[in-house]
Structure to design on (604 residues):
């Protein structure tokens, strides 16, 4: 079953009053449980494509269908994003004034969960990711790898259908990158659809659906 | 941000407490120095017929009246040989305990007998004459002073200072002396005529004295048209109106300081938004609506501002308390009517200051948070 479908998607930006076409006539179809890797040079439009799929930006033209729903017909975009899409970025973006546990329960609180119930779910996720002894730590008390793992926990705590990962290992050393990638692979094996953007080709596995972006065009490798 | 609010709210609280306390202290000083209602006979003395008719009218108000007395007043010069001071003498209501207690606020017994050669002086009058209890002063009737072949002739009598009273109202305490009725009659040659009638009420509230005065005036108009009653606050309405107006003006002026503190809030909240811009971005990606994010920062900023407001209220009260209890600076009684303010903060005043400040600060926070509407997640995440 198709969980992401992009039809003739185009996106451009105005750069010093000059129109810059970043994505041109993009078509993409992603099945549930697929691990899609998107590579390309810096500035080729990888992140722009992720932002469009993640409903953080709107296309100039074309159609986006996520989990069977057409983008333009989604009435509550924020709630749809909260329930269906998880994000991890190059930087963890954890809230510095909140503990690891509090950071992870935020998406559940947005959904209307009670704090106690949300805490229980978040603790289970943190335990799965090997962070049970870090739940009451603040981000500045954690290592880079731990921070990124908490960001992953926050992204998957609502059990989204799609996980969007925008160069999640960009700030990590090799050892930590391996830990993070192993987590993503494991989540994918459990059925989570992952759209993974990187410029590091060594992180792309053989079984991944591998796309590259060049001159605004998406090509399957 | 907090310091600005503390200073602004503190200044507003201090000014308002001082003004309110001044108004209250002045009002109390008027109450302990003047009767609630005075009945006057167009500047003339009250005749026996008028007095008996007036008594009959006042019988209708027996339940409202705590004490009443016919007043004898004369203008005199009081001298202690070195100093001469113009003053007015009022008759002492001998045995009228309630009347004396309320009107003269004697520090000791309120119903003692005032002998024929005894006088009571106001505190400032005594100070200016440099006399104390037990010493003698000379009371001179100005109308009796004449030049003759043998020099200056004056009619005067010496009195022993029996007591010194203080009402708190400088004007009264610096010019009023008290003699017994019989003594006043004797030195003026007056047989039995009071200058006015003074009434003290059981319920001394402004509205009550106003109402009773109106009723008495209606009856006076029917039977004694030359007489009229005037209540304490109407008699001094100019002062109280001016004070009220001044208090409102001060409140409005100091609200401007809070608005200036509000600019400080705008700057601080803007800085917070800029510092937390990535957090705002991530909260948006996690599904929070802009409205909800604004609510978080609104509550956070308002709680922070609350700390400033509460500290300002406490600081303002503490400053007002210190100012009214210190002995280094005092008011000039001849300018401000009283020389000391008794602190009288009211809950309603605190509520008004609190509510006004919260509204102003909340509006500035909301104004600043409008910038969140313009934030774009993509731009934030790209930063």
């Amino acid at each position: 079953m198709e969980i992401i479908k992009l039809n003739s998607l185009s996106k451009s930006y105005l750069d010093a009053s000059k129109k810059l076409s970043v994505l041109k006539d993009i078509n993409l179809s992603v099945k549930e449980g697929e691990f899609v890797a998107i590579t390309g040079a810096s500035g080729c439009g990888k992140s722009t494509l992720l932002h469009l799929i993640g409903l953080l930006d709107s296309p100039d033209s074309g159609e986006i269908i996520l989990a069977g729903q057409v983008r333009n017909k989604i009435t509550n975009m924020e709630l749809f994003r909260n329930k269906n899409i998880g994000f991890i970025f190059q930087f963890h973006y954890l809230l510095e004034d909140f503990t690891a546990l509090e950071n992870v329960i935020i998406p559940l609180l947005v959904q209307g969960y009670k704090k106690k119930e949300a805490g229980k779910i978040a603790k289970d996720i943190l335990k799965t990711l090997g962070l049970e002894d870090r739940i009451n730590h603040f981000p500045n008390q954690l290592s880079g790898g731990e921070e990124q793992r908490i960001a992953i926990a926050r992204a998957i705590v609502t059990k989204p259908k799609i996980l969007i990962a925008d160069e999640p290992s960009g700030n990590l050393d090799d050892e930590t990158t391996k830990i993070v990638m192993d987590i993503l692979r494991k989540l994918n094996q459990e059925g989570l659809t992952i759209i993974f953007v990187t410029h590091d080709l060594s992180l792309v596995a053989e079984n991944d659906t591998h796309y590259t972006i060049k001159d605004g065009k998406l090509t399957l490798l | 941000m907090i310091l600005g609010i503390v200073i602004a709210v503190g200044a507003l609280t201090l000014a308002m407490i001082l003004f309110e306390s001044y108004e209250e202290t002045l009002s109390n000083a008027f109450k302990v120095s003047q009767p609630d209602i005075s009945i006057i006979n167009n500047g003339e003395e009250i005749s026996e017929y008028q007095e008996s008719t007036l008594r009959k009218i006042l019988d209708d108000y027996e339940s409202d009246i705590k004490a009443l007395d016919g007043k004898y007043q004369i203008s005199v010069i009081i001298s202690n040989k070195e100093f001469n001071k113009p003053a007015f003498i009022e008759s002492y209501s001998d045995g009228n305990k309630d009347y004396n207690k309320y009107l003269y606020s004697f520090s000791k017994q309120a119903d003692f007998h005032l002998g024929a050669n005894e006088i009571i002086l106001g505190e400032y009058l005594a100070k200016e004459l440099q006399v104390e209890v037990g010493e003698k002063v000379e009371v001179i009737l100005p109308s009796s002073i004449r030049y003759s072949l043998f020099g200056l002739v004056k009619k005067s009598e010496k009195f022993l200072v029996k007591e010194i009273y203080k009402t708190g109202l400088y004007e009264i305490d610096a010019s009023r002396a008290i003699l017994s009725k019989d003594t006043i009659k004797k030195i003026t040659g007056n047989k039995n005529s009071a200058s006015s009638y003074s009434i003290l009420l059981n319920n001394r509230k402004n509205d009550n004295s106003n109402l009773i005065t109106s009723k008495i005036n209606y009856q006076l108009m029917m039977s004694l048209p030359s007489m009229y009653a005037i209540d304490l606050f109407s008699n001094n309405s100019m002062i109280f109106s001016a004070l009220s107006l001044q208090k409102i003006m001060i409140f409005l002026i100091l609200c401007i300081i809070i608005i200036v503190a509000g600019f400080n809030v705008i700057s601080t909240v803007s800085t917070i938004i800029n510092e937390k811009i990535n957090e705002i971005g991530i909260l948006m990606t996690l599904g929070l609506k802009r409205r909800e994010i604004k609510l978080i920062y609104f509550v956070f900023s308002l709680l922070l501002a609350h700390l400033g407001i509460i500290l300002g209220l406490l600081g303002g009260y503490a400053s007002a308390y210190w100012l009214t209890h210190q002995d280094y600076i005092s008011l000039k009684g001849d300018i401000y009517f009283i020389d000391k303010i008794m602190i009288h903060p009211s809950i309603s005043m605190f509520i008004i200051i609190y509510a006004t400040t919260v509204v102003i600060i909340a509006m500035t926070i909301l104004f600043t948070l409008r910038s969140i509407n313009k934030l774009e997640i993509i731009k934030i995440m790209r930063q």
Summary: Chain A has a mean pLDDT of 88. The helical segments of chain A are 46-53, 77-84, 100-111, 115-128, 144-156, 174-189. Chain A touches chain B through 21 residues (CB under 8 Å).
